[in-house]
Design goal:
Chain A is built from 6 helices and no strands. In chain B, α1 runs antiparallel to α2 and α1 runs antiparallel to α9. Chain B has 246 residues and is mainly alpha-helical. Chain B has 2 domains: 168 residues, no CATH class; 51 residues. The chains are: A mainly alpha (100), B mainly alpha (246).
Chain lengths: 100, 246
Amino acid sequence: MILLVTAAATYGLRVVLITLVPAHRLPAVMRRGLSHLAPAALAALVVTALVGSRGATALVVLGPMHLALAVAALVAWRFRNPALPVLAAVAVMTVLEVLS
Amino acid sequence: MDITLRHTRRADGVMDAVRDLAPVVLGLAPFAMLIGVTAVRSGVGAGTGVLSSALLYGGSGQLTAITLMGGGAGAGAVLAAVTLVNARFLLYAAALEPHFRGQPRWFRWAAAHFVVDPTYAMVTRRGALGDLDDPARFRRYWLTAGGVLAVAWVAMTALGGLLAPVLSASSALDVAAPAMFLAMLVPQLRARPAVVGAGTAGVTAALASPLPSGLGLLCGIAAGVVAATVTPLTRTRTTDPSRRAS
C-alpha cells in the first residue's frame, strides 16, 4: 500500500508539467534554466552517490569509489560509450576489494 | 508516401532508441540488481523490490523506499522521502514537455511514466542534434526507449532478488549508478555553461549532503541550473566582438 501511494506521488511529479500545467506556460526565465538541467542533475547525482551524507569533506578524503569514478570519467571522455565507464568502474572496485 | 520510406522512418525511431539504449541497459544492470539485492537483505522481499521497479521506476527513489520500509519507517516518512528524492522528475518533465506537446492525449498521460534519468539524458543528447523534432519519431523513440528500459529494469531487479543469497556483500555494485550518470554527463560537458553548471551542482550537492534525504540533491541541481543560466551572459560580455576589435 505504501508503495502504491508513493508510486502515485511519483507519477504525479512526472505528469503534472506535461499534461496539467504544460511547461510552456512557465515564466521565461524558468524555461531558460531548464535547458541547462541535464548536466546539473547528472553531476549532482554522481556527487550525491559519492559522498552519501558525509558532507563536502567526503569529496577530498579519497576512497575506492573516487578512484573507480575517476577511471570511469576517463573512459567516458575517451570512448563516449555509456556502458564502458560502468564496466571499468565495477572492475576497479572489484580489483580494489580483492587486493584489500 | 512511399511504403519503403515510411517503414524506414518508423524503423529509424525504434532502431535509434535500441542503439542508444543497449549500452545504457548494460550499464544500469548492476544498479537494478542492487535494488533486488537490497530488497531481500532489508527484509521487504524480492517481490516488493520488483514491484517497486514497475511502479516507481526510478533507482534512487526505490532504494530510499526499500531502505526506509525495511527499517520500519511509517508511510508518511516513506512518501515524503521518496517524493523529495524523485522531485527532479518534475524538472525533467518540464524540460521534456516541448516533445510531448502536440502528442495524442493517451501518450501524454501514459508515456510520462517513462520520465527517468537515463531516458531524459538520452533525449537531451538526441534533441541537441535536432533528431527528435518530428512528433511521430519522438513517440516511437520514447516508447521504445522507455518501454524496453522498464522491462529490462524489472527483469534485472528480479535477477538481483534471486541472486541475493549467493552474491557476496561486495560494494562493487554501488559504483554502477554513479558511473552510469558520469558516462551520460561527460559528453554533455562541451559548452562553458554546462561545465559551470555541473561543477556548481556537484559542489553544492556535496555541501548540502547532510540535509535530509533528497534535499542535498535538489539543492545541487537548483544551484547548477542557476549557475549555468547566468554563465552565457557573463561570457557574452567578455567576448564582445567590438571590445576584441579595439
